[in-house]
């Protein structure tokens, strides 16, 4: 009956937790060493020994019935050898069959592993064409020596402790040697060693299976050692900050530090020795799957330590905007740390554990691990792009866009280091990153266009009291200020997904920005017509125009995007609003202070007309103070400019008017009745305008 690979049932006690569809299976070439053994060796006692082992570690002093049968056959063969060799040593020694080596055990009955190892190494080194052979007895004693080493290790408190002389335990060397021996025997032509060599090979294979089962358990235990702090792979960054809309925007990647290795050097050395033995013996599938699952679990735990928990699409879609933004901030921090620190750490670990002739296995493991971990996180981006397009989400989505964009060079670097070997998973990951970035870019462009839609839709019919800055103006300008901090990213987004096809010298985001400003300006022009008083309409346009200009000049990014030409145009508009206001409010007042040929006729003052002029002037000033005192100019500089410009025209004109005509009234009650304000009173009234506090005119000439 031919020797079979251990199926899922025989591995159930050791491998069940390690099987995962998340990882690609090694190719058929990975199993060649064990397949070769299986093709060249018959089951014999191996299956029985393996079954005994998986039912509970087989007692060396109580062999199975199948083992008894082989033992009897072996003892009979040894007696035949002894008779043929003049009663020589029963263990083969330098017997008549011409085989190399002896039992290496002297007369003690305990196999000498060190002495036997010398013979085994010589046989392995000689290779298939070296002419070296090993007796059945030598193979038996070496297999027994290895089995005893395993049994001693199974009961040891510290399986990897050094011996009394400081030498490391020979267990791993013995397992590696028996794996190499089984491979060498599998390459030996059938029949060259006779029935002895074939029976000995069965024994070697059976012990190899037991050794591999033991090694699998130890490999997994070492990977999952609770004494090793696994979260160090993606170590949480204590002071890492993320980009946010308000009050400030900073680099989401700031504060990323170096991560400590996930295992101490001595643990890595043991893992490497175990992996070498398992891969050499053809157990590459079991080895890689255990390693993958252990490291994937470690990365999941580390992501949780960073605050990131995987959420299903339905949960993400149902989140409030505030909750989603918080989740995106956590995801961005975890994703950047994974890219900048975690993958490098895992790549280094794979390189160290699977070194030398097994480097290709390590590259394949890392590629699968990177793809699995990254896809686990990239699924979140798909859910985000399915949520409602809201303008406030733009900045968090741009953080995600930048994170996925910046990940591509990292994956490219791993692909370059891979030299094109086992890079299918990494290539697939790179394509997925590009696809995710594209979807996020489309989503970001659509969100920005929602801002334009919201401006067009804002057609409120209720004017802002006092002509103050409209909430829409504040919202849009603050929004654009933060958007311009992402100017290079938004330029890339709109170049790829925008409606404006920017050429080589054009910035499509700048064109988009200009369109938003024009929309806002048009919206404000419409809102200014809601005021019945033309003067207040101009105050409203002045307030909003000045706010827009100050916001742009206060943001180097926005100023650079819109350009100086836009700022000059806005300043021109402001001067025009100012002139319009003064004409609407103060031209009529100044007209009352002119001698237009009605106040004096042939050098004589027309007192009735003069009295009416003073009455009209006093009423106009009272009305201006009463109404425009409630108007608001929140920008102190603009408020001061308005007051100064008004006073510079009105106060001198009134002072001159008083100088010419105040004496026309007799002192006393007549003068107080018509000349109610002094020039200083008029200046004081002007200085109280635009502060939002209405007062009645109580000042009188003194």
From TrEMBL:
Component of the exocyst complex. Belongs to the EXO70 family. One of its GO terms (molecular function) is phosphatidylinositol-4,5-bisphosphate binding. Residues 13-27 have a biased composition (Polar residues). Residues 1-12, 28-38, 50-62 have a biased composition (Basic and acidic residues). Keywords: Exocytosis, Protein transport, Transport. Residues 85-108 have a biased composition (Gly residues). Pfam families: Exo70_C. Residues 330-688 form the Exocyst complex subunit Exo70 C-terminal domain. GO terms for cellular component: exocyst. InterPro entries: Cullin_repeat-like_dom_sf, Exo70, Exo70_C. This is Exocyst subunit Exo70 family protein. It comes from Oryza punctata (Red rice). Residues 1-112 are annotated as: Disordered. One of its GO terms (biological process) is protein transport.
